[in-house]
């Protein structure tokens, strides 16, 4: 049997070690600077919920382009359907912006509070539905902000069609496609590389 003094010293050492590890963790709030680190060379690979073994799509920051201001070029590759597209994003102090047809729009507000809403391209709306949802993916477990994308239909009803799970400092963790109020497909982060 251990003497009480040895036990207490071990306990204090354990608490100190756990505290220091959590402070230096790359996901602790002290180390988080931006929602989605859009630096050239960063990439994220995703799998579909129906096939967790093969990469379904990949996002990679491939360059910087000057339009009205510098924007990051993100190559969106659907490896399953052999589809490629380049999307323009820009990280600013209040979140991540997208560009379409020369117009700039806020995609992911950050910092954000649950319940915050804003408009984006034509009849679209984004709402933060959570700032602390735990999600397990093949790349690990993440605490995420959940952004819900919806649009107005012709009959003026609001239809939810996508929930995006973002983890500050890593970025896009998962997506949930919704049809008729039910999730139909999930995409999960399998691996990523940040410079």
How does this model look, in words?
With 195 residues, this protein is mainly beta. It is 11% helix and 56% strand. The chain is built from one helix and twelve strands, in the order αββββββββββββ. It has a twelve-stranded antiparallel sheet, with no helix packed on it. The longest helix has 21 residues, at 4-24. The chain starts with a helix and ends with a strand.
Defining key terms:
mainly beta, YmcC-like fold, 12-stranded antiparallel beta sheet, 1 helix, 12 strands
Count of folded domains = 1
Overall mean pLDDT: 78
* CATH classification, class level: Mainly Beta
Q: Give the strand tally.
A: 12
Question: Which percent range fits the helix content?
Answer: 10-25%
Helix-strand topology string: HEEEEEEEEEEEE
Strands across the major sheet, in which order? 6-5-4-3-2-1-12-11-10-9-8-7
CATH structural architecture: Beta Barrel
The global form is globular
CATH topology type: YmcC-like fold
């Amino acid at each position: 049997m251990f003497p009480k003094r040895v036990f207490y010293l071990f306990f204090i050492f354990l608490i100190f070690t756990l505290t220091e590890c959590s402070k230096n963790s790359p996901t602790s709030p002290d180390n988080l600077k931006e929602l989605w680190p859009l630096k050239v060379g960063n990439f994220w690979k995703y799998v579909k919920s129906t096939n967790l073994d093969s990469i379904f799509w990949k996002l990679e920051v491939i360059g910087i382009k000057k339009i009205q201001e510098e924007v990051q070029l993100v190559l969106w590759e659907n490896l399953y359907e052999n589809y490629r597209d380049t999307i323009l994003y820009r990280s600013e102090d209040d979140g991540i912006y997208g560009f379409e047809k020369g117009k700039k729009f806020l995609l992911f507000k950050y910092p954000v509070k649950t319940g915050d809403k804003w408009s984006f391209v034509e009849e679209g709306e984004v709402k933060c539905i959570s700032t602390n949802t735990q999600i397990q993916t093949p790349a690990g477990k993440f605490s995420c902000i959940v952004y819900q994308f919806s649009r107005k239909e012709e009959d003026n009803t609001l239809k939810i069609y996508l929930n995006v799970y973002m983890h500050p400092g890593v970025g896009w963790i998962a997506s949930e496609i919704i049809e008729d109020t039910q999730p139909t497909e999930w995409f999960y982060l399998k691996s990523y590389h940040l410079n």
